[in-house]
């Protein structure tokens, strides 16, 4: 009886694995424009998570500290969704920050404590303003599933911009 249950479970697992494999094969391949979008926003997303962690530790104003926590949390989720979609469409995402964003993070970490909050908020405004345009463009011109991802993420980016503009 136990071997029948195990055999049935193995068959179910194999069927699920085959179904997942066929879904991945059926997923559309990303266009060059989609790949460029992924390259840009994945780096920005990784940076925002790391910068948010730094702000959560270094910010002096509670509202800036809380925004850093929010940034890290929200962009971890966005990055996870992007990675899932990229995997489905055959796009590779760099596992770490590129030279530009590594340097940007190093600068953020080196800002004197008295200037940190203003510097961080200014940096986040800059990157969110840039992201807003990237996500809006992809939501209009991208192919699925990136188009839907960009549309949903643009809402989050706009919310972050709204909060940043109150700081």
Automatic annotation (TrEMBL):
Residues making up the signal peptide according to the UniProt record: 1-26
InterPro entries given in the database record: DUF4142 (IPR025419), Ferritin-like (IPR012347)
Gene3D superfamilies tied to this protein: 1.20.1260.10
Domain of life: Bacteria
Keyword Amino-acid biosynthesis annotated: no
Domain DUF4142 residue range list: 33-162
Keywords, comma-separated and alphabetical: Signal
PANTHER family: BLR2558 PROTEIN (PTHR38593)
Name of the protein: Putative membrane protein
Species per Swiss-Prot/TrEMBL record: Silvibacterium bohemicum
């Amino acid at each position: 009886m136990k071997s029948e249950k195990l055999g049935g479970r193995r068959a179910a697992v194999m069927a699920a694995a085959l179904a997942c494999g066929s879904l991945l094969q059926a997923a559309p391949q990303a266009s060059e424009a989609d790949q460029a979008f992924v390259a840009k926003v994945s780096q920005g997303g990784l940076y925002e998570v790391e910068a948010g962690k730094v702000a959560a530790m270094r910010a002096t104003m509670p509202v800036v500290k809380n925004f850093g926590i929010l940034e890290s949390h929200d962009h971890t989720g966005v990055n996870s969704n992007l990675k899932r979609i990229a995997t489905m469409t055959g796009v590779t995402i760099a596992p770490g920050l590129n030279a530009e964003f590594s340097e940007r993070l190093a600068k953020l970490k080196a800002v004197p404590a008295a200037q940190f909050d203003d510097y961080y908020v200014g940096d986040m405004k800059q990157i969110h303003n840039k992201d807003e345009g990237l996500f809006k463009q992809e939501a209009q011109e991208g192919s699925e599933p990136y188009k839907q991802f960009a549309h949903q993420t643009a809402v989050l980016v706009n919310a972050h911009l709204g909060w940043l503009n109150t700081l």
